[in-house]
Amino acid sequence: MLRLAVFLLPLAVAAASPAPARGPTACPYDLATATRMIPRECYANATAGQAATGCCWYVFAAYIFAAADHANRTGAAFLPAEPAAACSGAFAARLLSSGLVSPSLLANNGSCDLTGDPGKLAAGSRPCQLATIDAVRAMAPRALPNATRLCAAPGAARAPGVGPGDPGCAACRGAVIATTYEMLASARTKEFVPCGMAATVAVWSRAPPPLERFRAYALCMLQVLENVNSLGTSDLVPSPPPPPASPTTASRPLPSSSSRRNTVAIAVGSASAVVVAVVAVASAALAIVTIRRRRRSTTTAGDVSDDESVASLPPLPREGLYIFTKSELKQATNGYDEKLLLGSGGAGKVYLGRLPSGQRVAIKKIYRSKKVSEFYAEVAVLAKLRHRNLTTLVGYCLGGDHHALVYEYLGGGNLWRALFQGELAWRRRLEVAVDVAEGLAYLHGFREGAVVHRDVKPTNVLLSESGAAKLSDFGVSRIVPEGGTHVSTEVRGTRGYVDPESFSAGHVSEAGDVYSFGVVLLELATGMRAVVPTPSGGAESIVHAAHWAVAQAGGEAGAAAESMVDERLGADWDRPTVRAVFALACRCVRPYKHERPAMGEVLAELKAMLADYTARGGGADRSEASTSSSTATPDLASLPSTSSSVANTEAMATPPRRDS
């Protein structure tokens, strides 16, 4: 599924205490007007210590508004180093003095995380960051005028709205993306952040930007994230773990276990320990997707353009697979009876079927032509793989407008249901973790090159009736040759599980799966979900909750588990293994891939934990364990009753929140 990014603008602001509003050089920005963009309801959030993540977006948009307004008045696109530093300090001081944010939000890993390096913002410090607006405009002579007309609409009496839901939003967004890509080509760079920032400043530099229209524009750019179930802001670029709390660092008090899930907001990621992010414009990844698709010169089963005809796609493997006919699948599902529907998602629907032999299967019927490439990719990958912890592809049906994948049916539901809608014992959680790690270690050590799953999450972990866990859904997987990397043409994965470094660089590697698996381990240990929407419109991130807990525990990940452990494990939860799993998870979700363990190492540690737990008499073994699922099998007399599972239906990827 498509994942879109936002461009980020680095902003230098002091961490614990802001720089003085005026230094040797005064800030030329009209910050008083810019901060009016931040709605009054954000004030109480800041002083209450539970600032909504959405309020940070307004803070960031206010700063870029000030930059665009200055460009309109003076023709200066980017400031020299000293004025840039003065503005970042003045902006922080204004935010604090007006009550818009609390000091803890400006601290490293605070919700707004505005720590940064002034040099990143100065003219000439990076590609596209030119001193004059004329020089910036000259980088995109074809696309910029259209983007200015559609977004800023200077001089137009009644321009179409550009806010979320307005007809002008999509056109404006697309035009800004085109402008950014033209600037990238002109500068001969791949640095989307500074060029995206330059594009936004240029778009709004023809006339004084109306405050309300610019606010609508910013929300339009952010709306794309929600429309495609994209990443939280903290998942866009890597940011280092926070340092241990100290008396000189502003920090939040440790919340109680009953309230911690409601107080953890996603911190905005930064490109380095000293770079802070401010929203400039959305969808760099969309530009990559759009342009790279047009430029593809080769076609493989794993990289098939969505708009290519079936005739142009490579032949599918047949060895070891049964090639079903339409009539066979229709008969197996009683004519695709809706009573047999297991789930539905962006690619199609999944039905429970029964073959003439009596074998029950899960049949994924592809009804969207744009998902045919994933169909081909999954067949190509699964045809080569055989492992007890990977779902087995029985066969497929290909022809005309009807494509289908036929998998083995697993009657134990999926991990998401078992964990969040059932009562999953700790031993079962350990066993599932070992099983998934076994599958991933096999994939990463595949003889033809590492197979990177790219979408590891609880809904893609299916459970058999005997208790075994198996990875499913290989539609976005890639085989990476030994010693190489795959450059992704599309951002793949699910919000909250995507490796931020691989996401920002566009490189597919095993480390991305390690990160995703680390998020799953955090879910197993804490009972929290990867990302949970908040009533205020923001989101909560389990990764940042873990980093924050570790900081509060003086850098001891094992000790941090005490504050986040799933209370459903009871008062006598097994401290040695829960703490060890939590610490291992924190290593897996480190911001940079070279800091993470390999999957083989993760597997070895998990096996040791399970062996230790077993030796101390912990829990029932796999054969005695059971997982509960609240969803029943489709009611049909000809099919035995069992709990249902589905290979990654997108409808299950964003479940309702479990009350704690």
Number of H- or I-type helical stretches? 21
Q: What is the overall pLDDT average? A: 72
Proportion of beta-strand residues? 5-15%
Low-pLDDT segments: 1-23, 45-53, 107-111, 223-310, 486-491, 623-632, 635-660
Q: SSE layout and pairings?
A:
Blueprint: E1 6-10, H1 31-34, H2 41-48, H3 53-74, H4 81-97, H5 103-106, H6 133-137, H7 144-152, H8 168-187, H9 192-203, H10 211-227, E2 277-282, H11 284-295, E3 322-323, H12 326-332, E4 341-344, E5 348-354, E6 360-366, H13 372-382, E7 393-399, E8 402-408, H14 415-420, H15 426-444, E9 450-452, E10 461-463, E11 469-471, E12 478-480, E13 486-487, H16 500-505, E14 507-508, H17 510-526, E15 531-533, E16 539-541, H18 542-552, H19 557-564, H20 575-588, H21 599-615
Parallel strand pairs: 3-7
Antiparallel strand pairs: 1-2, 4-5, 5-6, 6-8, 7-8, 9-12, 10-11, 13-14, 15-16
Pfam families: Pkinase (PF00069), SPARK (PF19160)
Keywords: ATP-binding, Kinase, Membrane, Nucleotide-binding, Receptor, Signal, Transferase, Transmembrane, Transmembrane helix
Domain Protein kinase: 336-610
Provide a descriptive summary of the structure in words.
This protein has 660 residues and is an alpha+beta fold. It folds into three domains: 6-240 and 266-292, no CATH class; 302-411 and 640-649, Phosphorylase Kinase, domain 1, CATH 3.30.200.20; 415-615, Orthogonal Bundle (Transferase(Phosphotransferase), domain 1). It is built from 21 helices and 16 strands. The strands form six sheets. The chain has a six-stranded mixed sheet, with helices on both faces. Strand 7 (393-399) and strand 8 form a beta hairpin. The model is unreliable at 1-23, 45-53, 107-111, 223-310, 486-491, 623-632 and 635-660 (pLDDT under 50).
